[in-house]
Specification:
By secondary structure, the chain is α/β, with parallel strands linked by helices. It is about 35% helix and about 25% strand. It folds into 2 domains: about 150 residues, Periplasmic binding protein-like II (D-Maltodextrin-Binding Protein, domain 2); about 90 residues, 3-Layer(aba) Sandwich (D-Maltodextrin-Binding Protein, domain 2), CATH 3.40.190. The protein contains 9 helices and 13 strands. Helix 2 packs antiparallel against helix 9.
Length: about 280
């Protein structure tokens, strides 16, 4: 009897291990996208592995300062406030915010007053949140702002009818809404004619004071702009968002590696923000 009990316990234990293993495998993601591909082109030639870490966008500065990540490289809009709190690269891509609604409701939105009384989904800590706040506080439009964890969730809010519209990066909206067999073909970007859209620029951010690391990234961005940079932009349909980059480096060697603590890897914080950061099941 004792032997039988032990056998049963062993079988149960094996089953548990197999289930846990399957769950773990199912949870693994392969991360790619414009930003990730470009980062790999820069660092892997230096013998440094690019490792991705999914973050809460509203916690990006905390992640950098704690050392959990080395860089935020995920469609980060450059602002004066962010430049005060993080070390940010030269601009490498342009963007603006997009208002996304259900396609069947698109004709209802053409001016700011059409947004009155609507629920607006935005990513916490994003340029979309800043735009929604500007519309509410400075344009005096009575909207309800719903802050959520990621831009992809903002689209799901609109798709499911939980929010009337989302304000997210145009790079992401244009990419996802134009996927022929994608999940968001029923959504549409609308133009608000009486709201002047501000042009934005993306940059790479490191911990404040990591000037040599950003100097290195700037230098490589300029070196690659006619080769890998253009190639990756074409791959993800972002050719029209390229910028001409210039930079005068002060580096004299590999001292930038000191700001990675001479590790053989660089940890990049990202969110699901196609085409900048894309998750695929392994």
């Amino acid at each position: 009897m004792k032997k039988r009990i032990l056998t049963i316990i062993a079988v149960v234990a094996l089953a548990v291990v197999m289930v846990v293993g399957l769950v773990a495998c199912a949870g693994k993601k392969e991360v790619s996208g414009f930003d990730i591909d470009l980062a790999k082109a820069i660092f892997e030639k230096e013998g440094i592995e690019v490792v991705t870490r999914k973050i809460d966008w509203s916690q990006k500065e905390i992640e950098l300062n704690s050392g959990k990540i080395d860089l935020v490289w995920n469609g980060l809009t450059i602002t004066d406030e962010r430049k005060e709190n993080m070390q940010i690269s030269i601009p490498y891509l342009t963007n603006e915010q997009a208002v996304v609604v259900k396609g069947e409701n698109a004709s209802q939105y053409s001016k700011l007053s059409d947004l009155a009384g609507k629920k607006v989904a935005v990513e916490n800590g994003s340029a979309g949140e800043e735009t929604a706040t500007d519309i509410k506080d400075n344009k005096n439009i009575d909207i309800t702002i719903k802050g959520i964890t990621a831009q992809i969730d903002a689209l799901m809010e609109v798709k499911s009818g939980q929010s009337d519209l989302a304000i997210i990066d145009s790079t992401m909206a244009g990419y996802l809404l134009n996927q022929t067999n994608g999940s968001y073909t029923d959504l549409k970007i609308v133009t608000i004619s009486d709201y002047e859209q501000q042009k934005e620029e993306y940059g790479v951010a490191a911990k404040k004071g990591n000037t040599k690391l950003i100097d290195f990234i700037n230098t490589k961005l300029v070196e690659l702009q006619d080769t890998k940079y253009s190639e990756v932009a074409e791959k993800y349909g972002l050719t029209d968002r390229k910028v001409t980059m210039t930079w005068t480096s002060t580096l004299t060697g590999d001292e930038w590696k000191n700001e990675l603590k001479n590790k053989k890897k660089v940890v990049i914080g990202y969110t699901v923000n196609a085409p900048m950061g894309i998750e695929l099941d392994k």
